[in-house]
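A reminder from the course coordinator: this example appears on the midterm review sheet, so study it carefully.

Given structure:
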């Protein structure tokens, strides 16, 4: 199985964080990885990715992850992409993987989907979450799919792309779904503690460790405990990311971070 992974990165300080290096290292075990950073990332930072990527780029733009993926697609070309069995699109908005990715791909292969993601929800319409999506070769070669990427908008409506892509592929007759299926019209990512306790989940949102947002897990203590007991993931990478980017923390989150958990 030949896979190619297009990774969209962003860091407010134009740094390559430890958790991103770890994620690309794991992705490189199952795919050829290409990285596009949204910003002006200096060469000494980008070279941290050299052992785990086929190529890395940086470009300052306002098109978010879809713009970075579009730029990578333009660099690589559809002819080369079409040689791969699967295309992975993912970004650095999550910590992980917490589980063996090859096992997840094996399970999803057994379900027979043409495209899939880790999670999905019903906001606006049913759509797969774009932090980690996978498409098979038939979709890679599909002209409507290619046109979608060739026409990614240049303005702030870029976020609507995630709502458009899933129904577009359904309309083309492709079958897709998410790895974690709760059968409820809820966003399971907004309940990170429940998600880790009840599912063999490979990723958790970086926002889950920040205050005052829909993905927050409070102090993050229980979430860190679940990560440590259910995986080999080093939660110190989370703490280093928070410290490096000076991410906001409430009092209880600061205590947990300072404790080294």
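Designed residues:
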């Amino acid at each position: 199985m030949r896979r190619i992974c297009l990774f969209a990165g962003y860091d407010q300080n134009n740094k390559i964080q430890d958790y991103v290096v770890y994620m690309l290292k794991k992705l490189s075990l199952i795919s050829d990885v290409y990285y596009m950073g949204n910003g002006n990332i200096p060469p000494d930072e980008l070279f941290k990715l050299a052992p785990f990527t086929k190529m890395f780029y940086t470009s300052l733009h306002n098109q978010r992850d879809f713009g970075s993926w579009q730029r990578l697609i333009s660099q690589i070309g559809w002819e080369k992409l079409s040689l791969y069995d699967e295309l992975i699109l993912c970004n650095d908005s999550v910590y992980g993987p917490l589980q063996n990715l090859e096992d997840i791909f094996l399970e999803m292969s057994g379900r027979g989907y043409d495209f899939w993601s880790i999670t999905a929800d019903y906001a606006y319409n049913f759509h797969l979450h774009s932090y980690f999506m996978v498409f098979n070769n038939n979709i890679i070669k599909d002209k409507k799919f290619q046109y979608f990427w060739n026409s990614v908008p240049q303005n702030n409506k870029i976020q609507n792309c995630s709502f458009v892509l899933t129904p577009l592929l359904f309309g083309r007759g492709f079958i897709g779904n998410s790895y974690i299926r709760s059968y409820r019209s809820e966003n399971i990512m907004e309940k990170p503690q429940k998600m880790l306790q009840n599912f063999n989940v490979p990723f958790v949102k970086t926002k889950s460790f920040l205050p005052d947002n829909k993905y927050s897990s409070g102090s993050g203590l229980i979430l860190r405990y679940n990560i440590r007991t259910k995986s080999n993931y080093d939660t110190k990478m989370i703490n280093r990311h928070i410290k490096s980017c000076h991410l906001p923390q409430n009092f209880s989150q600061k205590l947990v971070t300072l404790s080294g958990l």
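Residues 86 and 136 are 4 Å apart (CA to CA). The radius of gyration is 18 Å.
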